[in-house]
Amino acid sequence: MTKKIKTCDFRITNHSRKCDHYIEGKIDGLGNELEAGFCRLPKEFRCIESLKHHLPRVSHSSRKSFIQCRMKYYYNQIEGRVLLPHRQTDAIKAGAIWDKFLELKHEGKPTKETIHKLFVKYKVSPVLEAKLTAIIKAYITLEIEHNEPNLVNCQHEFVYPIYDVITYGKIDRAYIESFTESKLTTNPDFHRKLHYLQAQLSTYFLSNENYKSCIVEIVKMHKGKPKANESVESFQKRLYHSYIARPKSVFLEYKEETKTFGYKFWRTEFDLPQILRTYEIVNRDISRAIKNNEWYRNDLACHVPTDCEYLHRCDTGSFSKMLYGYKDKH
Predict the structure, then answer these.
(1) What is the DSSP string of 7-42?
(2) pLDDT tens digit string along 116-171?
(3) Would you say 37 and 27 are in contact if contact means Cβ atoms under 8 Å apart?
(4) What is the value of pTM for the model shown?
(5) Angstrom distance (rounded) from CA 94 to CA 111
(6) How many CB atoms lie within 10 A of CB 17?
């Protein structure tokens, strides 16, 4: 259990209706708040007074966090605590850098300097840097097509209500009647099975009734390390040349004639009513958890599928400044 959502001890009104520390959450066209707001104080995140009337916005990932472990949801969504970028796992670092590279490519700015800044930000190891550099260079050399004329936006943000609770997310590439989700992974089998994609892609389909299909682009990252007596630079070059010679080994379902890759799924393959029902149930449970202080740790999820980012917090009882920071308040 953690501290109960109670009356705020820092409330300052100065004879105004709202606290001076208050930051509004998402509002509609009439000025009505649609989600719980935030606190301006440095060691606070969600406004605990606002939580009495509104829920935090819900995404596919926050919904999944709540189902996995309520404490994980609480730390992330109520207290706003996250691992510092350089403390993330290699898988999270690689995925974040890959997403940013695709965004930069859309903007025409994926220079060596901008990519290097990402490596510095996340403090990636020389071996991980070599793997990512080989993939990025191969992607550029192969001139993989993005269907730019029909592209609406890269890292496209969406917001829509499900049962009066704001649902939000980001789509890697949004088009007029479709979208593309990119996955950089060492375990491609997981990401090409409809069963594991159901919840995330359904959330995206529900954001726009015009989406008829989607492409899941799977980029397979090398699991291994440099050979004995092989330098990191030679390792990177070896990977790059193997990717150019055999694009399908890294860009799954690569098609030479169109310079595209990925697996196509249709809207009709997804059980959208069931996902809506799931959100309804989870939103109700989140509301009850906030109201009644129903937060507990699920020990069965601490190492599934990998070590939880809050494992150190649960083991020590505190957030180390060397490991954790705060999310942006927006």
Answers:
(1) --SS---TTSSS-TTEE---B-TTS-B-S--EE-ST
(2) 999 999 999 999 999 999 999 999 999 998 777 788 988 999 999 887 889 999 99
(3) no
(4) 0.90
(5) 17
(6) 6
Check: CB of residue 175 under 8 Å from CB of residue 188: no
Parallel, antiparallel, or unpaired for β 22-23 and 38-39?
A: antiparallel
Contact 104, 97 (CB under 8 A): no
What secondary structure, in 3-state letters, does 236-303 show? Answer: HHHHHHHHHHCHHHCECCCECCCCECCEEEEHHHCCHHHHHHHHHHHHHHHHHHHHHCCCCCCHHHCC
Type of residue at 255: K
Report the interhelical angle of 90-107 vs 126-141 (nearest 10°): 30
Query: Where along the chain do its domains lie?
Result: 22-85+276-321, 146-231+245-275
Residues forming beta bridges with residue 58, ordered by sequence position: 167
The residues with which 214 forms a beta bridge, in sequence order, are 179, 265
